[in-house]
């Protein structure tokens, strides 16, 4: 039987998955391998009757620039007792290609160790993906899908900002990002929003809902002083991960949690929550400001990849073939800023058994320059702000964040 490779996708979608799949398929088909895509991730891989898509060049060529994933994805994380050798023996598998997060990668290592104990030797190579851009890749290189998701977010954000300007109103927008604010930062700066709030901003003070809302109001009042009666405030959903559970519940917000204890933010509209709370405070302050919520979430994940990700994902797909040909296994494929392929191992990332997220470097010049361009109350605004606020000093951007 001809040798084969198996491709599975874990976690959630990111623009460029199909590009990786297509490039891997083309490279291995050209070398006379069968390329088998298995639906439903690890759950499908170890099922009695897995749903398998065998790729040919034409199918790979048709999907490479499409958004979404031609292979159905799954967050299923198998236990050791779920493992079996069926598909690997039956299909003469030589390589398992996984596309997903660090859990998907670490599970691939467990699978190959299990198979080795059964005298079945295969390689495994992982292609990391996340629109959050929070994997600490060398050179601070972006994770694939991030730039495409950001581009889609900027398109929506610019339309929303135009609506704010046209209708003279405010929008409270929320963007994805579990622990890092890269996506929110990229969208807000790309759209010239007057206020953005990301988790990394609370590096010198404890985050609270009150501080988040005061930052939004600080921007609203500053713009009133400037004669601008509209705007967009973008808040990264990641702030929910650093808020105290007790404070969230005391505000009447009830979140479900996944098996890892993370709040399932996809089940609620973060922008709606913050907008309702904002309106309550604006009413108490007698500020007549209309605001509306906009959620930037799932609509970003399956966007068509832009040129940057088409090239990056194609390179990563070719990198899988390169590393396999070199006999490298149990690694993540990575490309540096010069386009050189190299393997990275989970142990290269891990601290105490976990991969620390790559955060927005708020001390970097790019961050400091953009923060200075936001609209917010400063000491020189106190006197004029008194016509809107009883205590302007408590809405001072730098004092809220304890940055001065």
Short description, anyone?
This protein is an alpha/beta fold and 404 residues long.
What does this structure look like?
The protein has 404 residues and is of the alpha/beta class. The protein folds into 2 domains: 4-144 and 305-349, Rossmann fold (3-Layer(aba) Sandwich), CATH 3.40.50.450; 162-297 and 374-400, Rossmann fold. It is 40% helix and 15% strand. The protein has 16 helices and 11 strands. It has a 7-stranded mixed sheet with strand order 3-2-1-4-5-10-11, sandwiched between helices. α5 (102-117) links the parallel β4 and β5 (123-128). The longest helix is centred in the middle third of the chain and has 22 residues, at 146-167. It is elongated.
CATH class of the largest domain: Alpha Beta
Task: Classify the secondary structure makeup into a structural class.
Answer: alpha/beta
Sheet with the most strands: spatial strand order: 3-2-1-4-5-10-11
Mean pLDDT level: 94
Number of helices: 16
Percentage of β-strand residues: 5-15%
Distance between the ends:
69 Å
- Give helix % range: 25-40%
Query: Using only CA atoms, what is the Rg?
Result: 24 Å
* Overall shape: elongated
CATH architecture of the largest domain: 3-Layer(aba) Sandwich
The overall number of domains is 2
Give a short account of the largest sheet.
7 strands, mixed
Order of helices and strands: EHEHEHHEHEHEHEHEHHHEHEEHHHH
Number of strands: 11
CATH topology of the largest domain: Rossmann fold
């Amino acid at each position: 039987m001809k040798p084969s490779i198996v491709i599975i996708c874990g976690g959630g979608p990111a623009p460029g998955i199909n590009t990786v799949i297509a490039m891997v398929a083309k490279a291995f088909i050209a070398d006379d391998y069968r390329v088998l895509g298995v639906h439903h991730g690890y759950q499908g891989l170890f099922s009695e009757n897995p749903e398998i898509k065998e790729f040919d060049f034409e199918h790979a060529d048709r999907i490479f620039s499409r958004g979404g994933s031609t292979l159905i994805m799954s967050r299923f994380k198998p236990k050791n007792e779920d493992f079996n050798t069926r598909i690997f023996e039956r299909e003469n598998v030589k390589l398992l290609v996984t596309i997903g997060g660090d859990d998907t990668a670490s599970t691939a290592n467990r699978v190959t160790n299990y198979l080795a104990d059964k005298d079945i030797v295969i390689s495994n190579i992982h292609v990391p993906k996340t629109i959050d851009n929070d994997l600490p890749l060398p050179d601070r290189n972006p994770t694939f899908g991030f730039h495409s998701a950001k581009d889609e977010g900027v398109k929506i954000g610019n339309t929303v900002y135009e609506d704010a300007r046209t209708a003279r109103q405010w929008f409270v927008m929320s963007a994805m990002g579990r622990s890092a604010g890269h996506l929110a930062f990229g969208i807000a700066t790309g759209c010239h929003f007057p206020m953005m709030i990301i988790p990394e901003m609370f590096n010198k003070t404890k985050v609270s809902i009150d501080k988040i809302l005061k930052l939004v109001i600080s921007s609203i009042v500053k713009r009133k002083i400037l004669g601008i009666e509209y705007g967009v405030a973008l808040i990264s959903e990641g702030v929910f991960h650093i808020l105290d559970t007790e404070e969230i519940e005391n505000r009447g917000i009830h979140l479900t949690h996944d098996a890892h204890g993370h709040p399932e933010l996809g089940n609620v509209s973060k922008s709606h929550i913050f907008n309702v709370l904002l309106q309550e405070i604006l009413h108490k302050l007698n500020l007549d400001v209309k605001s509306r919520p906009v959620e930037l979430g799932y609509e970003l994940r399956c966007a068509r990849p832009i040129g940057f990700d088409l090239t990056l994902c194609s390179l990563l797909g070719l990198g899988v073939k390169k590393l396999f040909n070199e006999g490298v296994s149990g690694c993540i494929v990575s490309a540096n800023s010069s386009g050189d392929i190299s393997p990275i191992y989970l142990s290269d990332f891990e601290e105490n058994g976990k991969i620390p997220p790559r955060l927005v470097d708020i001390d970097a010049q790019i961050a400091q320059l953009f923060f200075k361009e936001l609209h917010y109350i400063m000491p020189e605004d106190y006197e004029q702000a008194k016509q809107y606020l009883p205590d302007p000093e408590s809405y001072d951007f730098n004092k809220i964040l304890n940055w001065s």
